[in-house]
Amino acid sequence: MASSLGVKAGKGLPAERRSDRNRNVRDLRERGSVGGDHLTACAGPGRTQEGSAIIEFLALAVLLLIPAVWFLLAVAQIQSALYAATGAADQAARIYVTSEAAPERAAQHSQHAVETTLADYGINPAQAQITHSCTTDCQNPGDMVRYQVEIRVPLPLVPEFGGWEHSLVTVTASSTALQGE
Known about the structure:
Layout: H1 15-31, H2 38-43, H3 52-98, H4 103-120, E1 128-134, E2 144-153, E3 169-178
Antiparallel strand pairs: 1-2, 2-3
Helix pairs in contact: 3-4
């Protein structure tokens, strides 16, 4: 039955189409566009494209991964500065109002707490500005003691040189506690 349709057993194509296909493949091979020779034909005489995929991959990886990693580092630094500012301001206010020492000594304890908290988060205390304020003289019960910590977040992987201080953002946190509570 297969022979009545003009199909040879096992080939799947009629004999006329099979010979046209073979002729087309033979023509393409002669021109160098089929098989292993197509790379040479596309690249030109004497040139091949072997290894170009690796170079293209590396170029795209550099162009896409470096900015992505830099962005993640920047976000991590901002988040670290936010946590550090919040924790430092909170600790400074609590230490000041719970200290039984003189106001100057309590302020020193609070300053040390801020520096320790910043160091715990890997932030240089020189990047921070600490502001302390009170409603009156900070000694009377019910006085509001406020600490504000402002941290300048530098650009990641960019060194500071000369007098140029670069900054990605500045984060600020404050905490208020009541004296004598």
